[in-house]
Each structure stands twice: as C-alpha cells, then as structure tokens.
Amino acid sequence: MSHFVEExxxxxxxxSRPCLVAVKILRNNAEDRARLVDTQSSWGGRGQSQGGRxxxxxx
Length: 59
Fold this sequence. Notes:
Residues 39-59 are annotated as: Disordered. The protein is built from 2 helices and 2 strands, in the order H-H-E-E. It is mainly alpha-helical. The protein has a domain at 3-40. A hairpin with a 2-residue loop joins strand 1 and strand 2. The chain is elongated. The protein starts with a helix and ends in a 5-residue tail after the last strand. The mean pLDDT is 71.
C-alpha cells in the first residue's frame, strides 16, 4: 500500500468530509507550487537560488 493511499485510508476513518476536502485542496496546491518552483528554477526564473535563499511563490 502506497504512503498516500495508507494516509488517505487513515484520514477517511478519522476526519469529517469538509476536513478531507480541505486536506486534498491543500495537498494539491502544495504539489502544484512545488512543480512551479522546480520549473522556474530550471530556466532561471523567480524560483532560482539567490544568495543561498530560495524564493517561493505562494498563491
């Protein structure tokens, strides 16, 4: 059983439906932001390293 499937199974047993929807939205948004930052850093966009710090674009 994959980590996410196991995690979802546990959450489905313990959280209410509105909480599950919020968790799914937050997880999807975090994955999208991570992909965006990876893409931008590969072509030297706003996600590239600047003086040892990474710029993360939120929202």
